[in-house]
Amino acid sequence: MSWDDGAMMTGQLMRWQEDPGGDHVAAWRSENDARVPGRVVVVDDRTKADDAFRWACEGTGMVWRGDFHHARQLLKALTKRVDRKDPKVGDSLTETFHRYRQAQGRRARILGMLLVCVDAGHVLRLRRAPDVQAACEAVYGPGEGRYVVSLRELQGVLSAAEWRRRGVRLPALGDTIVPHYGVFSPVRGEYLDLVARAPIPSYGSAFDVGTGTGVLAAILARRGIEKVIATDQDERALACARENMDRLGLSDRVVVERTDMFPAGRAPLVVCNPPWLPVKPRTPLEYAVYDPGSRMLRSFVGSLNEHLDQNGEGWLIISDLAERLGLRGPTELPDLIERAGLRVVDRLDTRPVHSRARDRLDALHAARAAEVVSLWRLAGV
């Protein structure tokens, strides 16, 4: 093993030294916009987990040159070490939540320091390495050059390929949705059930704002709505939604458009499931979970009247977890609805069924256990 104390971030390139071979350079790849490590060490099957953990905590990148399965074992060992230090419980749920996020950020930084070098064509030249070409090409595009990526991210890419192969079976849809890497997977079925049973004001048309995988648009089309316009501004989401509509045989009834929020015109039904927590994302992949300053929520509610037909409804699907964590005031959403010139026709509520709501060891268990997911039926005053 050899140190390269002079490894510097040069654009999107990472440079390091190793024997044999001397100087090495490769493109740096990170979907989470992680910075290029300032120092790099080459590691292999002989590397001890304690040494690797110390280097990772120091911000040192480790290029793996051993057996692929041993690299996975090392990553598991690093995970155990970083998870030994639980985030401290704060004086309030709000403080506990922010400490939890800080701990998660630290965890991601440390575990992201174990790296692999992938050759052109997405070829991973490690002993017992899987064929990663198809999975990487689906996420990164053509493999035109050599690059370095964290093993943790590569595992996420491989997992996404498996999700894409199997899909997610959804009872509310009566079918399977196929998520793409970087597009939020509809694994929490309770909010889908609300959309599947809410009374539809008109079967003529509908807008699905921020469609993601396209699951809500598909449910609406399967319920008999003749035309659904599904919007998103993320290229991966758009490709994912279009693929799902093709596979489900709904392309003639669901049009997927790239736009920020609403499409042109009005509809008798406008649906939106914005990210539920008004917190600034730390990485691009967190935008599916966090809505900084409640931007999407405020935009949807504030402009809904301009896009509703007379006697139309807007369906806002959102959790009250933000209120329970103290991230949004208890009257903030009702006040927002009132200021927008809207009234609440009805509100359908349900409780989450995911495992974290039952995990008493979770520092945020009190909020998760009491969480309510709601479909707000909104209409003009």
From TrEMBL:
Residues 202-277 form the Methyltransferase small domain. Coiled coil: none annotated. The keyword Transferase applies. GO terms for biological process: methylation. Pfam families: MTS. One of its GO terms (molecular function) is methyltransferase activity. Transmembrane segments: none annotated. CDD domains: AdoMet_MTases (cd02440). Keywords: Methyltransferase, Transferase. This is Class I SAM-dependent methyltransferase. It comes from Streptomyces yaizuensis.
